[in-house]
Each structure stands twice: as structure tokens, then as C-alpha cells.
Design goal:
Strand content: 15-25%
Order of helices and strands: EEEHEEHEHHHEHEHEEHHHH
CATH superfamily of the largest domain: P-loop containing nucleotide triphosphate hydrolases
Largest sheet: 6 strands, mixed
Number of domains: 2
CATH class of the largest domain: Alpha Beta
Number of strands: 10
Distance between the termini: 38 Å
Helix content: 25-40%
Length: 274
């Protein structure tokens, strides 16, 4: 049976100006999954993320982490933020140390780990995110793609159970977009969930185990990529297009494909078309 790492029950959030960012959301996040969150600007994605690690508190409803209801006591929130790491869209806001190495080291150091353990963790993370050549550089001298990798490294260093990334490939060229997604694959395992927001339906379709769609503060859909992207009314309502791989596959067969296995990558599609 799958383990729920984070659960929202009838969660709403209203900002001081009256904006209802989320409206009675019921949502469960399973441990070990790769999840893509889609939705138009203003759908509520950023608010959802800020609720996930206690930066915001729901206006109404309840949030549970590993089955335990959040009470928003200070110690509890500190522990939650060690387990739920967020990489924001503008990575520069998360980088503040004099060097990349010190920035990556900041999280483990604040967990009061032994010095040897901190050094081991930082070394592992630098290797994973391929930031060895950057470790002595000041973060503000880095490119957008490099800053994103360093921000990701800083979050991975605290070894979160749930890693949340807001538009991790935004503003990157195809090469660095692919590198970021490869890092996401390396970091995902049965005890770590990766949740990222994106406007790229093709990226979401190929990468994710599960798709979540928000629209104007409401949860429109949650399910496998094939289930969600086959719901025409959901795509129309959220102004999303069907991934190109699905469209080409359907055009190629021109028959009933309800019983056919959709390809999940370009390589799989071309193999089916041979």
C-alpha cells in the first residue's frame, strides 16, 4: 500500500486583499513519486507550495504530514522545513553565501550535524549536481542555469523527503533544461518525492509518474499522465494542450487506442512507428 507523505483536506487560502488562491483543495502526495503540477498563472501553484512547508497557514482546512496534522508550533514547522525543501523559481533569492560551497553547506550546518558528516554530505551533493567546478565561485557571478543547480544542491544537502521545485527549467536553454531534469531523476527514489511545477506539458508527460492540474484555486485533475491528458474537457478548461507524443501516436494509429499502450518518450514513439 502506498504511503501518503502529505495530505490536504478541504484546504483553502485567502490573501489579505480577498484573493481566494486555493478553494477547498483535497490532495494527497505519495512517497517516492515524480509529480508534475500544471496550471495557468494565478492557478494557485505557488500558494500550494508555500503551504507545503509551513510558510503559509491555511485559512481553513487541515494539512497532514506523514499522517500527523500540522499544528504550526515553532518546533514542528522547523522539522517540517527539514523534510520539505523548496527551490523557488528565482533561484537567486536562495543564494546568499560568499561561495557556492558555503551555500550548499549552510543547510547541513544548521542541522547541527558532525563536521565530518557535513563534509561528506556536501561532497556527495556537489558530485550529484555537477557543481564541483563552481564550488569556489561567488553565487552572484553564476549563470541562471548554474544558480538553479546550486539552489537545488543546497536543498538536496538537507536530504528532504519531499522536494518541491517551482518552474526549475524556466529561462533555461534545452541543454540545461535536460541537465536539470536528469538531476531530478537521480534524486528521486522510493523515500524521496519530487514535485515540480511547469507550463511544459511535454516535459510533464515524459518525466512524471503523476500529473496534478490546478485552475483558479481548484483541483481539476490528479492521475497518471495518460489518464489526465486524455481528459479533453480538463485540458480545455485549463488551457493546456495534449502532449505532442500522444497526438502523433493517435494520428499514426487512426483507430481506437483505448486499449493501446501509449509511448512515454520520443524513443518509444519512434520504435512503435517502425
Amino acid at each position: 500500500m502506498s504511503e501518503q507523505i502529505l495530505t490536504f483536506e478541504q484546504v483553502s487560502y485567502q490573501y489579505a486583499d480577498g484573493t481566494m488562491a486555493l478553494n477547498q483543495i483535497n490532495l494527497s502526495i505519495e512517497k517516492g513519486k515524480k509529480i508534475a503540477l500544471l496550471g495557468n498563472n494565478g492557478a494557485g501553484k505557488s500558494t500550494l507550495f508555500l503551504l507545503m512547508n509551513g510558510i503559509l497557514k491555511p485559512t481553513s482546512g487541515s494539512i497532514f504530514y506523514s499522517g500527523k496534522k500540522l499544528t504550526y508550533k515553532r518546533k514542528e514547522i522547523q522539522q517540517l522545513r527539514q523534510k520539505v525543501g523548496i527551490v523557488f523559481q528565482n533561484s537567486e533569492t536562495q543564494l546568499f553565501s560568499s561561495s557556492v560551497y558555503d551555500d550548499i553547506k549552510f543547510g547541513p550546518k544548521n542541522l547541527n550535524l558532525p563536521t565530518e558528516e557535513i563534509e561528506r554530505l556536501v561532497k556527495e551533493v556537489i558530485t550529484l549536481t555537477e557543481t564541483e567546478s563552481l564550488k569556489d565561485k561567488p553565487p552572484h557571478f553564476l549563470s541562471i542555469g548554474q544558480k538553479k543547480r546550486v539552489a537545488i544542491a543546497g536543498i538536496v544537502a538537507i536530504d528532504p523527503e519531499l522536494m518541491v521545485l517551482d518552474e526549475p527549467t524556466d529561462g533555461l536553454d534545452p541543454y540545461y533544461s535536460n541537465r536539470i531534469m536528469e538531476i531530478m531523476d537521480k534524486m528521486n527514489h522510493r523515500n524521496r518525492t519530487i514535485l515540480l511545477s511547469t507550463h511544459n506539458v511535454d516535459l510533464a508527460y515524459e518525466w512524471a509518474d503523476e500529473i496534478i492540474i490546478l485552475n483558479n484555486g481548484h483541483l481539476l485533475a490528479q492521475g497518471t499522465p495518460i489518464e489526465v491528458f486524455n481528459k479533453k474537457e480538463i485540458l480545455e478548461k485549463s488551457h493546456l494542450q495534449k502532449p505532442w507524443i500522444m497526438e502523433v501516436f493517435e494520428k499514426f494509429h487512426r483507430t481506437d487506442f483505448s486499449n493501446k499502450k501509449y509511448p512515454r518518450s520520443k524513443a518509444e514513439l519512434f520504435e512503435m512507428m517502425e
